[in-house]
Amino acid sequence: MSWDGFVEGLRSFVVWSMDATAVPIIIYFILINTSLLLLIVLAYLEFRAQQRRRSTAVSWQGAGLAPGVSLLVPAYNEEAGIVMAVKSFLTLRYPRHEVVVVDDGSSDQTFARLAEAFDLVQVPRELPHEIPVRATVLGIYVPRDGRTRLVVVRKENSGRSEAINVAINAASEPLVAMIDGDSILEPDGLLHVTRPFADDPTRMVATGGAIRPVNGSRVVSGRIVRVEMPQTWLPRIQLVEYLRAFLLGRTGWSRLGGLILISGAFGLFRRDVVVEVGGLDPDSIGEDFELVMRIHKRLRDEGRDYAIEFVPEPVSWTEVPVTAKVLRNQRRRWHRGLWETLWAYRTMLFRRKYGRVGWLALPYYWLFELIAPLLELFGILIVPLALALGVVNVPYAILFLVLAYGYAVLVTLSAMVVDEWAFHKHDRWRAVWQTIAASVLENIGYRQATVWWRLEGWWSSLRGKKHVWGVMTRTGFDEDAA
Amino acid sequence: MIVGAALLVGATVVILGACVLLIIAVVAVRARRHSRNQRDEMLLSPLRQPLITVAAGEDDDGTAAEELTWATGVSRTVLDRNIAEMLTKVRGVPAEQLVHVLEVHGAVDAAVDDLTSRSTVKRARAAQLLGLARAERTVPLLVEALGDESVEVRNSAAYALGLIGDPVAAGPVLAAIGAPERGLPAATAAEALQSMGVGISGVLRDGMADPNARTRMVAAHLSGERSFTRGLPELRRLLDFDPDLTVRETSAVAIGRLGRGEDVGILVSHTASSEPLALRRACVVALGELGETEAIPALVLLLGDADPRLAELAATALLTMGPDGRHALAGHDDEPAVRTARLLASLQKASA
Amino acid sequence: MSAPAGDPDASPVRVLVADDDADIRDLVEFKLTQAGYAVEAVPDGISAWEAFAANPPQLAVLDVMMPGLSGIDVLRKIRESEFSSVPVLLLSAKSRDSDVDTGFAVGADDYVIKPFSPRELLHRVNGMLARAR
Q1: Which of A:406-435 have CB within 8 Å of C?
Q2: Residue C8 lies in a domain
Q3: How many CB atoms lie within 10 A of CB C33?
Q4: Which residues does residue A213 pair with via DSSP β-bridges, in sequence order?
Q5: Within 10 A of B149 (CB to CB), how many other CB atoms are there?
Q6: Euclidean distance between CA atoms A379 and B254, whole angstroms
Q7: Is A339 on the interface with C (CB under 8 A)?
Q8: Looking at residue A480, what is its pLDDT?
Q9: Rg (CA), chain B
Q10: Which residues are bridge partners to A209 per DSSP?
Q11: What are the CA-CA distances from residue A430 to residues A407, A437, B163, B193 (Å)?
Q12: Domain of C32: which CATH number?
């Protein structure tokens, strides 16, 4: 076949595929944008309510109904920061909380540091086995002063999920908060996330708080003392992503009653409910998402009256990846976890008893979170190709791109407005300009890269689904620890 | 492509225009916050020193307080807001002087009018101000505001009623928790009821028979917190029969706090292995709290329970029961639960 | 109001006051200044710690609830520092027994619960300094 013939064939293929996909793509485009707009409107309503609540807030100090909280901290090779982290968790402002650290078979000095700092003594306690765990528990330790509410459990290395399950077994308070050892919590963050439990003690089963990237901010003694923008663009763009995801996405869903994702970096659960559904699934990659889905499914199957709520106050700060390599691993893992969980719970789709979760939230996640990168990739490939082959003209293609990505910027900016309005975390004007710049820059390169990484994650799951479970899970933890 | 070029251009313009508008909105929100803060500061600056003087209790001759009463117009509005805030921070004579300034300004009467304002924020703030000014005569109005369509106003009204502390409001506050669609958040209700006098014990008893689980829980919780022993029959009934597990746990804790010797039986009966684990544990802790030695045989049986935490809680409870309790542990020295409880008790003792 | 005890010729006793709430900060500063103390008032935990480390005062009044470093965090740092014996009074919000518990566990010497009486605060500060002497 001659070159001209090949180009001609390719051109007619491109024309054909654009014709064939034009209508579905336009429908998809309209759907995703409308739903985003809808979420923005919902978030706006929620924020207006929040704003009202804030301007009329009366101080709540957690007296009386504030349930006790166990902070669960899985630690794997965190000798550098663990002591500071535990001290900062112990001095959170809350009437009743304990810290449960599970040393997940660290090969460094994690345990030694804790033992020295808190003068730990081993206790002959046997842990309840309410959640079955495979790994062997090596020992349980408490501070010698008999007062400091800290429990340290040492166990064989078996990954984050099992570490958390062990911590749940060791926890003695009615609520459990799953937090990472490198998270930084606001001093009164616990008061915020427990408030829904105190307000609605018989129905609330889980709450999640907003998470922000900590990169660039000044941290002293495990607390943020000055919020600053990250130094480089990669984390700045992620800041924009977090803003959008938490402020708009989850706040909107929470209002709709279809919240299905509570981030693992700060989620608070009723301990008895987590125990009832069997704890975190150690074989799952998106274990936090999977847990919330399992809770939804179980409670709806049993027809119980319950609530899961999102608390928009930023309560936790986390270090986001600064290199493309780490970011790639993270996004691959996230998308893989998303796919595997959505697939595992596919039976909940469009079933009456699952209500808004089955009719709204899950279809949305399928369509706009899971499949989105696939369609985006198609667009990324077909538009330049069509351009090169002269199927469409240049202004047309540019318009199309501006339209598609302009919408993304629009959504981000809406998130910014509500953030500025409700929380006002950044003092400096420079932060505003940098955030706006990041929301534009995000569309040049970053977005395309994450599309590819997400598809990689999905593909690796589809390809290796049968046999790489355990291995992949472990890789995930190593990345976490890195 | 199917999309018309004009449509595409139009959509692009709309989106880019919206982006620009949002950027302006971000800037405007920041600028407005800044200018408003500045305006308030400027208006308040001449009044700031007298306000601080009164609040610090250093206004011995009353001149500073008098100066505050002269404020007019916008500065009076800003000042009154500041005084209301100050009332959440100071008490005693300075607080009384500040309330007097509010009254002279007519702020209390204005707040009564604002209770029916269309603005949610105004209604909520008005309710709060009435509470902070301890305006006892407005209790009936605040009770009415407990049924407001907005949760912020309901919260503020309960807060105000708590500040005023008149037990007359206890019934309505408790009932407001279970109002369909317009419920009062349990935490606010509990906090308000906490600060009302002993006159509320009857209301709490009634509340424990309420059809709403949240109301029953708050009533049970407060009966325990405030040691209202008259509520014991209701608490026992809730522990035995309530359909809601959280309510039962709360009742067990309350019985542990204020129960009598005769309550050992009921608590022990709910430590049976057929009961939910969380309830069994709550009952064991309650038995320890109760401290009645009749519970010893039952607790000893639990030392060998399949749940290690329950066993440890039972051992801990026995350790608090004096020589009899400690003696009962004698034959169980090999149990990890007993050894752990002993070790923890000795650590606590050593550091005390 | 009673002046702080001690030699009248000596330089005034220095007190560090940290509260993010300008009302309370100004009020406590005014009250203590009137009573003859040299007050340094700062608006947040990190400034409190920096002021403390730069020039340790004879007494510190710390609000528990401050953004960033809380009063308890600052107290923790003070107790871990070489000037760990400086008496600290915590200002805590109402009905927060737990703040008080945590505060004492970390090493607070006294506390005052908001809403508070400024007169009572002054008496406590005087008393703490008298005990520390």
Answers
A1: none
A2: no
A3: 16
A4: A318
A5: 10
A6: 63
A7: no
A8: 33
A9: 29
A10: A311
A11: 24, 10, 44, 47
A12: 3.40.50.2300
Q: What CA–CA distance (Å, rounded) separates C131 from C5? A: 11
Domain that holds residue C44: 14-132
B199, burial (CB in 10 Å: exposed 0-12, middle 13-18, buried 19+): exposed
A240 neighbors A450 (Cβ within 8 angstroms): no
CA distance A482 to chain B (A): 35
Buried b (16+ CB within 10 A) or exposed e, B321-340: beeebeebbeebeebbbbbb
Structure tokens at B92: 């005693």
Q: Is the CB of B56 inside 8 Å of chain C's CB atoms? A: yes
Query: In whole angstroms, what is the distance from residue B34 CA to residue A302 CA?
Result: 52
Tell me whether residue C102 is in a domain: yes
The 3-state DSSP class for residue B31 equals helix
Structure tokens that stand for A445 in this block: 């390169």
Structural domains counted in chain C: 1
Confidence class for position A263, pLDDT limits 50, 70, 90: low
Of C1, C34, C117, the CB nearest to B90: C117
Listed in sequence order, the DSSP H helices in A56-174 are 82-90, 110-118, 160-170
CA distance A74 to A166: 9
Contact A198 B187 (CB under 8 A): yes
Q: What is the 3-state secondary structure (H, E, C) of A47-61?
A: HHHHHHHHHCCCCCC
Burial A391-418 (b: 16+ CB within 10 A, else e): bbeeebeebbebbbbbbbbbbbbbbbbb
Interaxial angle between packed helices A233-242 and A429-441, expressed in degrees from 0 to 180 and rounded to the nearest 10: 90
Residue A475 — pLDDT band, cuts 50, 70, 90? very low
Check residue B133 and give its pLDDT: 93
Contact (CB, 8 A) for A370 and A342? yes
Q: Distance between CA atoms of C7 and A315, rounded to whole angstroms?
A: 49
Neighbours of chain A (3+ CB pairs under 8 A): B, C
Contact A265, A177 (CB under 8 A): no
Query: What is the model's pTM?
Result: 0.88
- Inter-residue contact C93 to C99 (CB < 8 Å): yes
CA dist., res. A313 & res. A428, Å (int): 20
Q: What would you measure as the largest C-alpha separation in chain A, in angstroms?
A: 84
Kindly tell me the burial class for residue B233, based on how many C-beta atoms sit within 10 Å of its own C-beta (0-12, 13-18, 19 or more).
exposed
Q: What is the pLDDT of residue A62?
A: 58
Least confident of A335-344, A386-395, B331-340, C111-120: A386-395
- Quick one: angle between helices B245-258 and B213-225, nearest 10? 10
Average pLDDT of chain B is 92
C86 contacts C66 by C-beta, under 8 angstroms: no
Residue B190 CA to residue B186 CA, distance in Å, equals 6
* Sheet with C59-63, side-by-side order of all strands: C38-42, C14-18, C59-63, C88-92, C110-113
**Cβ pair B302, B270 in contact under 8 A:** no
Query: Does the distance separating the beta carbons of A392 and B1 come in below 8 Å?
Result: yes
Contact yes or no for A439/B44 (Cβ under 8 A): no
Angle of the B120-132 helix axis to the B107-114 helix axis, nearest 10: 140
CA distance B144 to B286: 38
> Which ipTM did the prediction report?
0.88
Give the bridge partners for A210, in sequence order.
Answer: A314
CA proximity to B81, closest of B120, B112, B126? B126
Q: What is the pLDDT of residues A218-245, one digit of tens each?
A: 888 888 888 889 999 999 999 988 888 7
CB-CB: which of C69, C98, C105 is closest to A220? Answer: C69
Kindly state the tokens that stand for A103. 């040393």
Give backbone dihedrals phi and psi of A64, rounded to 5 degrees, phi first: 70, -90
C24: tokens are 């309370």
Asked if B22 and A272 come within 8 Å (Cβ–Cβ), the reply is no
**Residue entry with tokens 């000095």:** A109
Amino acid at A337: G
